[in-house]
Prior knowledge:
8-stranded mixed β-sheet; two-stranded antiparallel sheet; disordered N terminus; alpha/beta
Amino acid sequence: MSTLEQTRPPHSADPAEPAALLVSVVIPCLNEAENIEQCVLAARGAIARLHGAGEVVVADNGSEDGSAELAEGAGARVVRESRRGYGSAYLAGFAAARGRYIVMVDADLTYDFKEIPRFVAELEQGADMVIGDRMDNIQPGAMPWLHQYIGNPILTGLLNFLFRTGVKDAHCGMRAVRRDVLDQLDLRTTGMEFASEMVIRAAKERLRIAEFPIEYHPRGGESKLSSFRDGWRHLRFLLVHSPTHLFILPGALMAGIGFLIMCLVEAGLSFFGRAWGMHALIGGSLLMIVGTQVLALGLCAHAYGTYFMGDRDPWFDRMRARFRLEHGLLAGGAFALVGVVIGAVILGEWISGGFGRLAYEQLAVFAAALLVVGIQIFFSSFLLSILGLRRR
């Protein structure tokens, strides 16, 4: 549980309630005794240069070095969040913030607090979220080469490819957001992937994202970042929030290639100087079956994201508006029926031949694959319909 270290009750980010302050600077903190006082004082100095009142909120994430007490002594309001995690700390800080605008800054002195007025100015001009761009202004020794030239460019590039955000530095720790859009963002993650979630959710909600260059300085104190663990968490988050690229496209490709191989084998065509036979047919049928299952999982993932997580996907919205349960049942039934008919013909030939050697082995594999795919489509259609029963 989060507990607010003050006499007044915790303040929730309710967009309907007017904010008493212009800006809340929220700083997550885990054992930052070396830096936290300087961060709080710098934040208060930046707020003093603005034309409205503000506050500094430190979200202490279980520090054991007296960071919380030092922050309070420097003039910050402290929120104690016992659940560890970068995202957990920020979610607690957001819930306590009273400002119309929220500026997020790490407690490691890597960012210049004098930039806070620029972030507020962008929000005043209509931006919903503002992100700093560090990549062209990294001071010597401030960022490991693995992060600077590999990790951050790859993850940011993948994020932009999947979600078309256009952001140059998706993992910058200095950013700002309007408090009244927090409900739209519906942020949930508790770890370092929180940074990616903010950008992805903003893009899906079609919020206006602004970005400008800032400097990135060498940190003070010990880094809490784990390169491979946190990098994987970001990558995992990007993939699971893009079922089209994780499921739909690979599944459709596998199913299509598998079906094509099966048809070519049945047609008796030769490739690379030899005819493809039973082994190619079995491989193609397995590829089609697996691809169909992956495709069905992707559709279910889209349905869950749309109905229960507030996701928006124009492609999926068009598909669910155009197709109904009955369409899936008819498609699945058609595949299964063709497989059954072919199987029945083969069975009849086998019986008429006196139950001897089974003929048409390749055709039997083809029929079995169609039957399995038909069953998959049939029951996956029911599952999609079930997911749509209780919509958010």
